[in-house]
Amino acid sequence: MVLLAAGALLALVLQSRHDIDREARNRSVAVAETFAHQLGLQPALKTSDPSTVLQPLAEQTRKAAGVDFIVVMDTNGIRYSHPQPDRIGKRFVGTIEPSLQGKVHTESVEGPLGKEIQAVVPVKDANGEVVALVSAGLTVENVTGALDRQLPVILLAIATGLALATVGTWLISRRLRRQTHGLGTQEMTRMYEHHDAVLHAVREGVVITDGDGQLLLANDEAKRLLGLPENAEGRPIGDVPGLERRMADLLLSGREATDEVIGSGDRLLVVNQRPTHPRGRPEGAVVTIRDSTEMQILTTRAETARRRLKLLYDAGGDIGTTLDVVRTAEELAAVAVPRFADFVTVDLADQVIDGDEPAPGADMRRTAISGIRSDHPLYPVGRLIDFLPSTPQARGYGTGRAELVPDLSQAPGWQAQDPPRARAIVDYGIHSLIAAPLMARGVVLGVVNFWRSQKHEPFDEDELSLAEELVARAAVSMDNARRYTREHALAVTLQRSLLPRALPEQSAMDVAHFYLPAQSGVGGDWFDVIPLPGSRVALVVGDVVGHGLHAAATMGRLRTAVHNFSSLDLPPDEILARLDDLVQRIDHDHNGDADDADGGGVLGATCLYAVYDPVSQRCTMARAGHLPPLLVAPDGSTEIVELPAGPPLGLGGMPFETAELELAEGSQLVLYTDGLVEERTRDIGEGLELLRAALSHPDRDPHDSCRAVLDMMLPARPTDDVALLIARTRTLGPDRVAQWDVPFEPSAVGAMRSVAAKKLDEWDLTELGFAAELILSELITNALRHGSEPVRVRLLRDHNLTCEVWDGSSTAPHLRYAATTDEGGRGLFLVAQLSEHWGTRYTPDGKVIWAELALPGTPGGEAVLSAFLDVDPL
């Protein structure tokens, strides 16, 4: 009756809500259509201020019609009327598109008056065009008021019905109880027969005992399960023959028991016992018994299958966590101990560890061991094993099929590999073996050996299948690790071959460097130290976005380009501009190549280029999207160099700017890539502060500073390449530099030769006097004849002797071969023959022509004069 009443109430509520909603919609549509067809509506719409006419008319109609609002709006939804005047002129809340098409639309929306049920109807002119819209509706609060008024009446009716039903039920129950007391003998006998038939037919034993410990009842199933005689009923429990002692103790105790397992012969019985309380006090117990022997066997098998599935599931997550061959082998060995085997050894072909394809043969190296004990006699890790053809390992490696050896003591083929060690293994207690080959893509990578010692039973065929499945899953991870090792080694080899192996000899700076490729693959970071004419040196650090062979190859191309551009002795901003053009051409070439499926263009690259002059102690630098360098002063203070930030290479369209610093002797210039300061656990600002803290020790040399930075900041597993370059400045003092201003007249050539010869005598470089005088004579003559004032001469004694002639002209000379009849044109040819290198560099005030001579005692220093004497006669 309660359910019927609840259902009736729910139906009434739903019906009432449906009727109210329908009524609200009908009233809204009727009022809106009525107002839309009023004769004065369309004339009012054509006035300059329709709201003046429509607002009073709408309010009057709304109050008369009993709705909550009537809104007149234009075709854009802008209101002309509203019960709240401040809403006039604002956009209507609701859907007007269907009404703009001439349809009547009703909906429930959240409007200015609350949740509303509204209707929108079109206002059409004589041509049928929609010129305005009218909306009318009711708020939900007012709509549901009728239901709230009806609900008490409905609840009262339901309560009255429930009261009447309760009284009727009580009367009927009393009558039925009175009638049951008059049940006849035949009916009672039939009920007892039915009860007895059911009791003995069920497949569950039932035993009833009284409070005195007598067996009152045992059905046929209980007698079968407990082995009771036919006359067991009515006898004391302790005197019943064939009853197990533990079962008798349980029956005599009268305690509660739930699913208690008791053995009875070769059966496992599940027993439930509950005391009975017929008159409010314990007077016996009811016991149910069921046979769970077969269920126990099935449960054991299911548990075994569950453990094996759990092992395979865990293997999928625990094996192959890294792309390292040795680590993958260790994970494979660890996951199977002790859940599947007592000891596991993994033997891999030697080539697999290095990432190569395995060669034919059975020579394998023991890569991993895991066991329940560490004092086992198995081959140790690292041992190279040449398995004999008679061993299961060699056969499995050759055929790709797993082999089961149930009894190692009866396996002569296995024992022939190493008889003394085989005896030690058997004496240790290891008695069974499964040798499963690691096969991936049809290639056998090695063999996994599963050894058993604690369980007396040998491995069986089901466990052989499990071992094959486990090894097959691990083989995929092993092959992935092998292929990654090979590709990573190739990329690292390529990248290291593209990076400088040793820094060139130069006197301008003491330099320390460090490079570490990312753990996930090599990238495109690079650094360089490039000697320049005039004892200057260029420092370069760059970064190509991405990882892998493509990034390393791109880095090599950019590094080669930097070397080539540096040989032109261009300023840093022009070097970066030419690199930018090169990257754009590379991208253009790859974008135009339809066969370039891997997108071989440069995804992005940054670079920082700095030139330090040890004579003037000035450093000129520019950067293209790279992090700014750090400057460590001799007193230990550190600062980030305020360097104009140019765009990354390849964007084009924007010039690069240079900055010039004057560095005190002993200052340290630190160049780095973002892999050093950026990390997932910290932002770049925190990384820069750590770098500054690590560098604030002026007493350290660059190598010590490099180690300090790496100890503080280098991540354990870097996700990006790390490149670091630390350079401490030195100066070329006045004792190694000589400079003179040259009068702009031909007679000055002889005077310059004379003073230069004296300076060379002071430097103990008299052997170079002839060549130096000839070179200076030619260069000064060219400057006076083809250049402009001012003209200067400078000699630098460093690893070689540098002769420089400065003038104010930007016209560069070029080498040519003079004809036999030419009177001139052989000067630069003589300079090129006498010097090791010569060239031109431009300055803001003109140009410098320089030539380098090897010092006596150095390679090439004795060949200066002989080279001159070998010149063909003119």
From TrEMBL:
Membrane topology designation: Multi-pass membrane protein
Q: Supply the SMART domains for this chain.
A: GAF, PAS, PP2C_SIG
Q: Where in the cell is it found?
A: Cell membrane
- The residues that cross the membrane are 151-172
Residue spans making up a coiled coil are none
User: Which InterPro entries does the entry link to?
Assistant: Bact_Sigma-Reg (IPR052016), GAF (IPR003018), GAF-like_dom_sf (IPR029016), HATPase_C_sf (IPR036890), HATPase_dom (IPR003594), PAS (IPR000014), PAS-like_dom_sf (IPR035965), PAS_fold (IPR013767)
Q: Decide whether keyword ATP-binding is in the record.
A: yes
Chief location: membrane
**A molecular function (GO) term:** kinase activity
Keyword field? ATP-binding, Cell membrane, Hydrolase, Kinase, Membrane, Nucleotide-binding, Phosphoprotein, Transferase, Transmembrane, Transmembrane helix, Two-component regulatory system
User: Per its UniProt entry, which superkingdom is the organism in?
Assistant: Bacteria
Supply the name of the protein. Answer: Histidine kinase
**Organism field:** Streptomyces virginiae
